[in-house]
Design goal:
The complex is a heterodimer of chains A (238) and B (591). Helices cover 37% and strands 2% of the residues of chain A. Chain A is mainly α and 238 residues long. Chain B has a single domain (3-581), classed as FAD/NAD(P)-binding domain (3-Layer(bba) Sandwich), CATH 3.50.50.60. The longest helix of chain B is centred in the last third of the chain and has 20 residues, at 473-492. The chains are: A mainly alpha (238), B alpha+beta (591).
């Protein structure tokens, strides 16, 4: 098993928060077990450097897509500048990307829209497949990759995907677009501990004070801007 | 090889709110009680202290504390002509997976039902005539009245530390409370929370409109409190990491914060965690239960014999366990016979979304249930003559949403969801968006029910439960009526870009954003064994030593959150067991 696979399987074991401080078994009035914050209570921030799930080529295309969804402008840096691609890479390598919480017993059938998603592929697999399909489509249509197209053409393609237009082959449709948009927002707005929201840029944009736990001193200041500096669970975030 | 544990007086399946309050009552009385909980032990200081809790991605987006569909799910279809498919991903339901159950992460809205909600059939016939009930509705009285439950509501609120302002005390209307509520014996245990800016805007305007706003009873409590079990709670800090989160302050009512510390002191109580009950076992003549069969986290099966079996899991699991165990006749929608799976109800939601211009709402200061409500259009509080429906909704201005990932897509129509302009739009929307929710009644219909799925299985090879549900005409009409009221108020407060919704106008789906998580019925209480599974003490008509506690008991849903009613009914049943059943085991009600 290579290092990437080992990382994935370790994360799967601790998925779903099923770590019990008391252990399974019988608990009675005379049971004693440790109480208090555990060493592994917080996830570790991604170590910068090599990608864990994406290939370099995939990450390059995701960067281009993400930077159209959240571009750099006067209100803040772009998604990739904020760390959203690193964020997504680690998410796809972990339980989320591996569909750890999804019911995956068959048979798989498509139902009514009301019956919701019936994906056989995991989120990680959906990205791999969709990025490959996007590469094929752009090469055929424009002779180059998505990342090399000019921004207007990139936006046009993304709008076509969002609207589920027929000119794009599946899976390049509304469902994959929704996944992209959800994940880039997560990366821009989650605690910087997860690799994105660099310098709390997403929180500063909207005035969200972050990892605070007591607003009682401010409750009476109704309808006023509070100008609270955001704080993160990550010690070094500024 | 199967282990057989020593016989207990009582085995309780599930240690959420209803399981923990009934176990505490019975263990304190000296009974040997064994509780079996599928999830793990959870402790505030270890599992959700403030240093871990302030993490939207982990707890709200990835839902790490909840029961995932991977562990267990159900199948769904809108009608019996469709094939049901599994709910494979996170949906509107938010089940627990731990000691404390959903009570650990809930939003903590702490309501009593309205007196009408317990007697919808007889009160409707009395006021409007039988013809007012639409064909197909399964509207029936519960067998217990609000007044009978009042002391148990009072007791549960005292255990939970509930914060609020009484509207009617011993028949006298009190200013500042809900004038439509059932009469209470006394005030709430703790005073109301500090309202938000949006709460104040709504209060002022609805008062001008002639309605009667009041603070929503809250389980995120306003001050430090010691409950009758001797357990201490802290004051809520309005941190905004509430619904879907454990509370790190001991200030959200929960089994963990309010009951379990007292429960664990009783030497006659034992708790098996990470252990799942597979089915309830019956005597050879099928007339009583003998205990349960379970499987622990290592896959080892065991048996817990007991004189009394109390089924206190989540509503869905209560119904499924009764079906899997063959206790009570399953409901057949073609013949309308049978009771297990009958009377499914949900929560009929209507909304108005609106945006202010420069309001500085500071939405991050919130709790899961910080809200002001008007009950003027709930239950039978208004004249329904000629309207063609029964019920209505509580209409509330909620301040319960301030976490950024969840709000990144809440934008007025026409605002860019991505690309140039999204940051500007999001920045404005975050501080100016407000929401008025109509949380409405829901009545059962003969075509909507639960049974066991013919195709899909759980991790043990047992059939999943199948839900056949769509909104009925009564609830479509009440939802539309309430939508219009929400929209009127949104206009009156000066909201812009107003959008309003009646969720019942569309087909039911488990995947609609901002939908309710309140699922009810399937093992309902009542006066008639041909239309109910339980008598008024939540005792099975089919097996006198089986009691089923939870929202599964509700023959209909009120225009309120269910938890405090679940807790009050659990205490009501505990008293019936202690004072009557133990002295003379057998049916407490003659059919």
């Amino acid at each position: 098993m290579n290092r990437r696979e080992a990382l994935i399987s370790l994360v799967q074991i601790s998925a779903l928060g099923a770590i019990s401080s008391a252990g399974a078994g019988v608990i009675r009035s005379d049971s004693h077990f440790p109480v208090g914050t555990q060493a592994d209570a917080l996830p570790s921030p991604p170590t910068p450097g090599a990608l864990v799930y994406f290939t370099a080529a995939e990450a390059h295309e995701v960067t281009a897509i993400f930077d159209r969804l959240i571009p750099e402008d006067e209100l803040g840096i772009s998604a990739s500048q904020a760390g959203c691609v690193v964020f997504l890479d680690r998410q796809l390598a972990g339980p989320y990307g591996q569909a750890a919480s999804t019911y995956r017993l068959g048979p798989y059938k498509q139902g009514t829209p009301e019956q919701g998603p019936q994906f056989q592929l995991t989120p990680a697999q959906r990205y791999r497949e969709a990025l490959a399909r996007l590469g094929d489509y752009c090469r055929t249509q424009y002779g180059t990759l998505f990342s090399a197209l000019d921004p207007d053409r990139q936006d046009d393609l993304l709008r076509a995907m969002e609207a589920g237009q027929d000119r794009l082959p599946l899976p390049l449709g509304a469902e994959f677009f929704a996944l992209l948009l959800q994940n880039v927002r997560e990366g821009y707005l989650a605690d910087p501990m997860y690799g994105g929201n660099r310098n709390m840029v997403g929180w500063r944009l909207i005035g969200f004070p972050g990892a605070r736990y007591d607003y009682r001193p401010y409750l009476h200041k109704k309808g006023q801007p509070l100008h609270l500096e955001p704080v993160s669970l990550l010690d070094k975030a500024v | 090889m199967k282990t057989t544990r020593p016989k207990a007086d009582v085995v309780v399946i599930g240690l959420g709110w209803s399981g923990s309050v009934v176990a505490e009552e019975l263990a304190r009385a000296g009974l040997r009680v064994v509780a079996i909980e599928r999830g793990a032990w959870r402790d505030t200081a270890t599992d959700f202290p403030p240093s871990v809790d302030t993490d939207e991605l982990r707890w709200a987006t990835r839902r790490e504390i909840l029961q995932a569909p991977r562990q267990e799910t159900y199948t769904v279809r809108n009608n019996a002509r469709q094939e049901a498919l599994p709910v494979r991903e996170w949906s509107n339901l938010t089940l627990g997976n731990n000691v404390g159950g959903a009570g650990t992460h809930w939003a903590a809205a702490s309501w009593r039902f309205n007196p009408f909600d317990f007697e919808p059939y007889s009160k409707t016939v009395e006021r409007y005539g039988k013809g007012h009930l639409l064909p197909g509705l399964q509207v029936q009285d519960w067998g217990v009245t609000y007044q009978e439950l009042e002391p148990f509501y009072d007791r549960f609120e005292r255990i939970a530390g509930t914060s609020g302002k009484a509207g009617v005390i011993q028949g006298v209307i009190m200013p500042g409370g809900n004038p439509f509520e059932g009469s209470r014996s006394r005030e709430f245990p703790t005073p109301p929370l500090v309202p938000s800016h949006w709460n104040d805007i709504f209060s002022e305007k609805t008062t001008q409109m002639g309605y009667h706003p009041f603070p929503v009873p809250a389980g995120t409590i306003s001050q430090a409190y010691v409950n009758p079990l001797g357990v201490r709670m802290g004051p809520c800090t309005y941190c905004g990491y509430c619904q879907l989160f454990g509370c790190g302050n001991w200030s959200k009512s929960s089994p963990n914060a309010c009951v379990v510390p007292a429960l664990m002191r009783h030497s006659t109580f034992e708790l098996l965690t990470e252990t799942e009950v597979l089915h309830i076992n019956k005597s050879p003549d099928g007339k009583t239960a003998t205990g349960v069969t379970y499987v622990d986290k290592n896959g080892v099966r065991g048996e817990q014999p007991a004189d009394i079996v109390i089924v206190a899991a989540y509503q869905l699991d209560n119904v499924r366990l009764m079906l899997l165990s063959g206790i009570g006749e399953p409901y057949d929608p073609r013949t309308r016979r049978g009771v297990i799976g009958r009377n499914y109800s949900f929560q009929t939601l209507s909304y108005a979304y609106l945006w202010f211009e420069d309001a500085h709402l500071n939405p991050f200061m919130n709790t899961g249930c910080l809200a002001i409500q008007i009950d003027d259009f709930n239950a039978d509080n208004f004249d329904h003559s000629g309207l063609g429906f029964i019920g209505g909704a509580g209409i509330q201005a909620l301040s319960n949403s301030g976490l950024p990932i969840g709000m990144a897509g809440i934008l007025p129509k026409g605002a860019p969801a991505w690309g140039k302009g999204w940051k500007q739009a999001f920045r404005h929307s975050y501080q100016n968006w407000a929401m008025i929710q109509g949380q409405g009644t829901s009545y059962a219909h003969e075509d909507m029910y639960f049974d066991l799925d013919p195709t899909y299985k759980d991790n043990y090879g047992r059939p999943l439960m199948r839900m056949t549900f769509d909104y009925n005409l009564n609830d479509k009409r009440s939802g539309e009526f309430i939508r219009q009221k929400c929209e009127q108020i949104a206009k009156a407060v000066g909201g812009q870009h107003i959008e309003s919704y009646n969720f019942a106008a569309d087909h039911y789906t488990p995947f609609r954003a901002n939908d309710s998580s309140h699922t009810n019925g399937g093992v309902v209480m009542g006066t008639d064994p041909t239309t109910s599974a339980l008598n008024r003490y939540q005792q099975s008509w089919a097996a006198h030593n089986v009691f089923v506690l939870g929202a599964s008991s509700f023959p209909n849903n009120g225009g309120y959150n269910p938890t405090v009613t679940i807790g009050a009914l659990a205490l009501w049943t505990a008293k019936a067991i202690l004072e009557h059943y133990l002295k003379n085991p057998g049916p407490l009600v003659q059919a």
